[in-house]
Every structure is written in structure tokens, then in C-alpha cells.
Amino acid sequence: MSNVIVFMSDEHNPRYSSPYGHAFIHTPNMQWLADNGTVFEHAYCPSPLCVPSRSAFLTGKRVHAVQAYGNNRMGIPPETHGLGAVLADQDVHTVFIGKVHAYRPVAELGFSETIVTHDGAGDFKHLDKGQQRRPLAVREGAMARREQYGPHETPWGRDVTYMDAAVDWLQTRAPALGRPWVLYVNLVRPHFPHYCTEELWDQYREHGDLPKHGVESATAQHPYAVDLRTHFQLDGIPEEHVRGLRRGYYACVSFIDLQLGRLLSALVEADLAATTNLVYTSDHGEMLGKFGLWWKCNLLEDAARIPCIAAGPDFRSGSRVSTPVDLHDLQASVFSLTGAEHPQTWLGTPLEGQPTDDPDRVVFSEYHGHGTRAGSFMVRRGDWKLIHNVEAEDQLFDLGDDPEELDNRVEANPAKAEELSSALAGICDPSLEDRKAEAFWEMQLVRSTASAVD
After folding, report:
1. Are 87 and 81 spatial neighbours (Cβ–Cβ below 8 Å)?
2. Could you tell me if residue 426 is inside a domain?
3. Strand pairing class (276-282; 308-311)
């Protein structure tokens, strides 16, 4: 039995880090973790949106089973026994620090301790009308985001406070516990706005670059991509802002890397490194201008992929695993590493038990949130990935030959599309789940309207 730290950032596309091959992003602590641990090369989130992804991780269920379709908790059925509570029942001490953004307020998640948290998601009486999918809403004020980057007086929000609390807990509380523990630390960066310090901004002065694949790409013309650009008012962003937003994002990634370094140092100083596994991950990715898209809200690689790097006594040093995995597998690891029994009905296979290359393993992600006219569902097996779009053409990509997803092979490879469609059907009925999600959105709008009248 060992301890576990899950360090989860927000909106980190793994391609923007040295362990995943980026040429100039300065992430020495992520690289140290990779060199001394295991890199999971193809890790995915349950859904490319905060509340759905985090809720799935904490409950061991699919997003459609939790009914956490968007970033609002109104109407989500009660989940009374999540990760923190189940582990606590088995005498594993659990600690929650930082951003919550989950299916319930942090006080109801069942953790042994909650320290310096911020909910982020509300049981709002008035639903954000920008959530509406049919007809597709345009998000008011989204254009303001395009100028939110660069040096700022207070760039990190509460993230430094969260990390201060984590370091203090490791140094003062953890050494005396005498039983396995799990520390779940959640920071907000590199999520927009891409504000940063002067020092980190200057570090990337030569790297305010442009995406290699823009709106001229065939993938950018897909109806769901057009929906997202319409919803977020993304057309016509000046080149100056594109370069600035990307440069600011690089700075934010380096900030997260510095916080990872603080955790690694705290483990050594508290004499806990030999008994503690540390996993760095994120809740979803970031498009960063690719195909004219920003942020997440789609199942393309840049939004649905996440970093997953694990080091400690239970992970092989200097190893790379190409088998696709997801946050449910990390959740299963939290149980296995601490010696706790994994609930039989929960999803996930521990990361430390994954083969280096399993070409038959299927991973799944889904999206039901704002910005597109209807839901979408993803399955990946081996190099092939299918995105089933409920109200638009499906997309099939051979990620081995086409890692940037430039060539939709759905018409050229009907047999492969059918194979992956069958795998998807074994997980859920996409049409049924989309109807449930739309009914949920309509319920939220009705409740919101009724509340406004009251």
C-alpha cells in the first residue's frame, strides 16, 4: 500500500509539454516525472468540459450516467457516495484542495478533509442562456476573451494559495497519519484567461506563433466546428491576439510545471517520496486556435486528450505506454495503490496494470454541452478513432498516419467505421443519450424560466 497525489490542472493539452514532444515549452518538472516514471501517451478525458469530466472521475460513471452534461449542477440526480467517501469508508484518508467544479458542492463529496476550495459550478436558479443548443445560442461576451493574455498584476488567481495549502499539508499532516492517504490537488491554470507574470511572458518572447492548421483545413469546415466558432464568436480574431493567446498559454503551462516542482520538493522534504505515487493530469485539453477553435467543447485530439504522467514506487521508471487510457483508469489506480477495494460497478482499470501496447483496448469520451447543435461520442481503438456526431457527418481518423486529424476517412474506410460504431453501441445508444441530454437541457431552461418569474 502506498499514498497517492493526483495533481489535476485545468485545460492542459498534453502536446504543449516536453514529455509529449513539444520543442520549446519549458516543463522540466513534467520531464523529470516522465524520466522517473511512466508516460501514458494516449490519455483521454471522459468529456471535454470541466463539470462533466470531473464528475465522471469522482463517481466512476460515464458522463451520461451521472447526467452531468454541462457546467451547471441544477437537476443532476444525487450521487451520495463518490470517490472520497468510498475511500474514507476503507480507512483511506482523503484530502481535497482547489477547484471543485463537480456534481455536488465539495462538502458533499465525502472527503476526509477539504482545504481551501472554490466550487466554480453552481446550483444556479437562472441557467446561462449560452448553454442552449437548439437553436444554437451565441455566447455573449465571448469576444472579450481574445484579449485576455499577457502580464497581469494577479495572474494566477487562487492557484498559488491552493499549492501553498498542499505543500503545508504534506509537510505537517501527512507524515503523522499512519495510514494510506490520497491528496487531490486541483489548480485552474492553464485554463483561460492566459494571464501570466512578466518573467514567464518574457520566457516565450520568441514564441508567439500561429497554429499550423487553421480555418482553411477540411476539419475546420465540419458543421460542429462551424457551430463552435459561431457560438464563441471566434471568426476574425486578429493575428496579434492569436499569437498573444498562444504565448500566454505557454507561460501558464510553465507556471503549472513550477507548481509540480513544488510538490516534488515537498515530498522529498517530508521524506514521503519513497511511499507516494504522484500523477499529473488535467480535466481536458485546449484547441489553442487549431481549426480556428479555442478552449474545448469537442472530441478532437487537442480538446479530448490529457496529460497523464505517473511516478512513484508503483510505476516503472522511464516507461511509455501507448495503450489508450482515461481518467477512470486513474481513478481505479487510486484504489489499487492505496490497497482499497474498487467498487465492482465503477469503471476503470488501474494505470499501473496497463500493458505497454494493447491494440484492442477501447476508450470512450462524450460531449453534450454548449456550443454545438447536438451531442457527440468518441471511441478509440488502436490508431483508429471515430467521432459520432448526432446531427452531422461522423468523423473517422487514422491517428497513426494522421495525428493532426486532417483527413476524415469515414467514407474511404466504411468497414473500420462500422467496427468502431459497434464498439460505441456496446457502450451506449448515442441517439437515446442525446435525447436524454436534450430533455435535461430543456428541463433546466424551464426551471430557470420559472425561477425568474418567481
Report:
1. no
2. no
3. antiparallel
